[in-house]
Design brief:
Length: 288
């Protein structure tokens, strides 16, 4: 299946252990690179989250952000560590005695001191299971978006493949006419110069010209590569790197076709091929 690396997903979930809100962004990248924006309390779960992501995605630069709100009942069950708050205030007053410009104690900032406000401790194993389950749902949304984007890319690539096949067929059809036209031009030129040329010599020249202009092998390889691209698009695995390699092979055949050109039509066909291949190559950079 063709899957894009560029996608965005937002997933919110209300659980017994709190509200979880995920935002996941992914863009194209040579490998899988994951970065997190998490509260420090969720850092112990990071390795498990990385494994879940690597089991789901193969390539892409992925940014994962989590916003968490504790359960409402936990918010209503706040406890004050009076001893710690008193110690903080006493220390402040002691330091304030060394200066005449000390500001009055800000009670709100004392309450924000780590450990002064205590919440009901949550079961960490249960919280990790809840977080991973919620992340899986967010990844499912991301993968669905990647699949939709990938389907659009697949259609574009198939269209370009059909156009390449059409050009290959046109080149096959035109080649005999091109050789006949050059034979006539060569005969006309000899007549203009009033030069006597033996028929055998003329045939030798035409054989050499035909060998130089023979692009049958290039056309066959071009069409074989196109068929391989179509086959690769149906593989149920990451296909981006294989497609990128096939673009190099297609481009090589298009360049050879141009170098063997003895006619403006075949030169134009070569240019058209390279334009189509480059269009595909640009989009393939986004495929996983």
């Amino acid at each position: 299946m063709t899957r894009s690396m560029t996608a965005f997903a937002r997933h919110e979930e209300q659980t017994e252990l709190g509200s979880l809100s995920w935002e996941i962004r992914s863009v194209n990248h040579r490998y899988l690179e994951v970065s997190f924006r998490l509260e420090e309390s969720f850092r112990p779960f990071e390795m498990a989250m990385r494994k879940l992501i690597s089991d789901t995605l193969s390539r892409g630069k992925v940014e994962v952000a989590l916003r968490y709100r504790v359960p409402e009942q936990a918010q209503n069950a706040l406890q004050m560590n009076i001893g710690l708050a008193k110690t903080v205030m006493e220390n402040y007053q002691q330091l304030a005695s060394f200066t005449d410009n000390a500001a009055p104690i800000d009670i709100l900032r004392v309450m924000q001191w780590p450990g002064v406000i205590q919440t009901e401790s949550l079961d960490q194993d249960a919280l990790q299971a809840t977080v991973l389950n919620s992340l899986k749902h967010a990844l499912d949304d991301l993968v669905a978006t990647r699949d939709r984007e990938g389907a659009a890319l697949e259609q574009m690539i198939i269209q370009r493949c059909e156009q390449i096949n059409d050009i290959a067929e046109q080149t096959k059809i035109r080649l005999p006419d091109i050789l006949a036209s050059h034979r006539q031009k060569l005969s006309d030129r000899i007549a203009e110069l009033e030069v006597s040329l033996e028929p055998e010599r003329l045939e030798q020249e035409m054989v050499l010209l035909a060998q130089k202009a023979d692009v049958a092998e290039e056309i066959d390889r071009l069409q074989n590569h196109v068929n391989e691209v179509k086959h690769t698009l149906k593989r149920n695995e990451p296909i981006g790197r294989r497609l990128d390699f096939l673009m190099q092979e297609l481009n090589r055949e298009a360049n050879t076709l141009g170098s063997k050109s003895i006619d403006t039509d075949t030169t134009r066909y070569s240019v058209d091929l390279k334009v189509l291949i480059e269009q595909m190559r640009e989009q393939i950079q986004n495929i996983e």
